[in-house]
Amino acid sequence: MNELHRKIRDEFLPVVTSPGQYIGGEFNQVRKDVSDDGVTVALGFPDTYAIGMSHLGLAILYTAVNQMEDVVAERVYCPWLDAGEVMRDKNITLFSWESRTPIREFDILGITLQHELAYTNVLYMLDLAGITFRADQRHEDEPLVIGGGPVADSCEPVADFFDLVVLGDGEDALPAVIEAYRVLKKNKATRREMLIQLARQFPFVYVPQFYQCDYNDDGTLAYFEPTIEGLSRCIQRAQVMDLDNATFPTAPLLANTESTHDRIAIEVMRGCPQRCAFCHAGHTRGKLRSRSINKIVELAWQSYLNTGHDTVSLLSLSTSDYPDLAELVKRLYHQFENCRVGISLPSLRVDKQLRDVPGQVSGTRREGLTLAVEAASGRMRRAIGKKVTDEDLIATMRTAYEAGWQKVKLYYMVGFPGETQEDIMGILHLTETISRLRREVASQPATVNAAVSWLVPKPHTPFGWIPQQSPDYFLEAKRELIHAKRQLKGVSINLKFHHTDGSMLEAVFARGDRRLSKVLETAYRMGAKFDSWHECFDFNRYMEAFKTNGIDPAFYASRQRGEQEILPWDHLDGGNKEHLYHRYMRIMKMLQE
Question: What are 334-357's pLDDT values in tens digits?
Fold first, then answer.
């Protein structure tokens, strides 16, 4: 046993909260040895073990990389606050979960970028691992730090911290990059030579340090250009077109401790036909691709045999758009009817196809029904491209109540351009209607949880140009909805609101540029980490970091962009910019009519 193993066993695990999350050795874990010419990859998730173990994307990459010959992938998650303090106090470096290898000794550290409020956790992981923050200052013996994931195509605020970023689908792209890296490593290429070759070889690879920019007097971008010959001005997203034959983890890891979602997660479809105006994922996941019913049932059954989970969750941006959804649910019900396995249908869009789905699972354990309504008024839904009608919503819920469903969760947003007081109060009125509807088929109203979030204008969407509404606007909307709810009687409605300050900060970093890297580093030095966790988030800390670096957050969050302005994500597969702007103009015209 080496010294690091001993320290983890004797000085770390006995004193940290929930030590089971750090011990590794989970059921279905992969352990491999590789040759000196092989490649070691640490797959990092910038949040807690409980969240990372529930993340399907990380599980897919873990499977895809470990299928490669002479390549091993191990995992690393963000240690919780107490664990980080122990590691600093005991001089314990960040280590992999499988072999207790220091992360700094891996060839590659891949970090998934899930959302903007996880950015300081990237620095937290690099810091605990002893890896230089700035990519252009790293030494030859440090890992190649690779980013990817949902917000990789708007990564400029953290671009300085990554050697390269992979845009798009990762299950084929990352193994291709690793294979090319293996050849370069064998040929003893320098770090710079590797990065140049990888950037030239793969259209989906972005090496930030090989691109330079400058700014106009008003703070907007003046230009953004590659500095190395042969590099593209615009990076393209990688896409996996055949989901039936794509890598999928049918033997996922089973967490040692409670995780966010202990269930079988099956991605039934990638992409979205709706492309709602506010949705970054809908505009960036590429062409619509779906798995066949036979393949989904096969994957679900094999995953059940390898895990024993009692819930199958059907995942996609809009599961109700899956072709023959009712038939799929029926097939899954018959496959699992004697196993007491529930079928979960998260984030559903309401339409005619969805009406019969709740009844299809009436004979099995029913998980909560979650519907993404987004806007309460038909006027606003039509404008933003959310093809939901009250008629379909009511019909769907009536079918669900008749089938025995008792709880429903509705997602709404506040802050759309052209929004009126009637649009906001419609959230409560529609929620009340859905709750009372259950009385038509049962003796009591339904319990309805309404989650209200604040619109964060996202890049690569028609709303990428608009200002975010002010915090005062959101707080007033929250007060009015809570006041109106108190007047209601005879219904069970729970309102839950997203944190206003966090949403404003998300808006800053979602559409930010490289100047924000200084803010992130300053905020981290001041103690910022786990910013998506309410108990850890300190808005004043960020305001001080902005002030220290002479940056006004309103420039990024609440400023109207011009049609011809160079945006910080134009070079990251921003080829449909003109189309998005024209749609934005059409939306504004609809709302003014």
Answer: 999 889 888 877 655 555 545 555
| C-beta separation of 174 from 244 below 8 A | no
**pLDDT score recorded for residue 502:** 95
Q: How high is the mean pLDDT of the chain?
A: 92
Question: Which residue's entry shows tokens 């006995």?
Answer: 14
Cα–Cα distance measured from residue 488 to residue 433, given in angstroms and rounded to the nearest whole number = 11
Local confidence band at 258 (pLDDT 50, 70, 90 cut-offs): confident
**Cα radius of gyration (the chain):** 24
Per the DSSP assignment, residues forming a β-bridge with 314 are: 266
Rounded alpha-carbon distances, angstroms, from residue 351 to 373, 426, 585: 11, 19, 26
Q: What is the DSSP string of 332-347?
A: HHHHHTTTT-EEEEEE
Q: Report the domain count for the chain.
A: 2
Assess whether 308 and 369 both reside in one domain.
Answer: yes
Structure tokens at 226: 């590659």
Residue 488 three-state SS: coil
Q: Are residues 210 and 269 in the same domain?
A: no
Taking the C-alpha atoms of residue 322 and residue 299, their distance in angstroms, rounded to an integer, is 16
Tokens of 63: 């499977």
The reply to whether 169 and 277 lie within a common domain is no
Whichever domain contains 279, its CATH number is 3.80.30.20
What's the pLDDT score for residue 358?
Answer: 55
The answer to whether position 350 is within a domain reads yes
- Residue 411 CA to residue 317 CA, distance in Å, equals 14
Phi, psi of 143 (to 5 degrees): -65, 155
pTM equals 0.94
365 torsion bin: left (phi>0), alpha (psi -120 to 50), beta (else): beta
- Pairing type for strands 221-226 and 211-215 reads antiparallel
Separation of first and last alpha carbons in the chain? 73
Residue 125 inside a domain? The answer is yes
Rounded distance, CA 291 to CA 295, Å?
6
Q: Is 370 helix (H, G, I), strand (E, B) or coil?
A: strand
What is the span of the domain harbouring residue 170?
3-226
64, 30 in Cβ contact below 8 A? no
Cα–Cα distance, 567 to 464 (Å, whole number) = 9
Residue pair 270/314 in contact by the 8 Å Cβ criterion = no
34 with 87, same domain? yes
155 and 284: one domain?
A: no
Instruction: Report, as an integer, the average pLDDT of 39-50.
Output: 97
> Do both 80 and 187 map to the same domain?
yes
Alpha helices in 41-159 (DSSP H): 49-52, 56-66, 81-90, 119-129
Give the pair of three-digit tokens for residue 198.
């990888």
- Percent helix, strand, coil in the chain, to 5, is 45, 15, 40
Position 476: which residue type? E
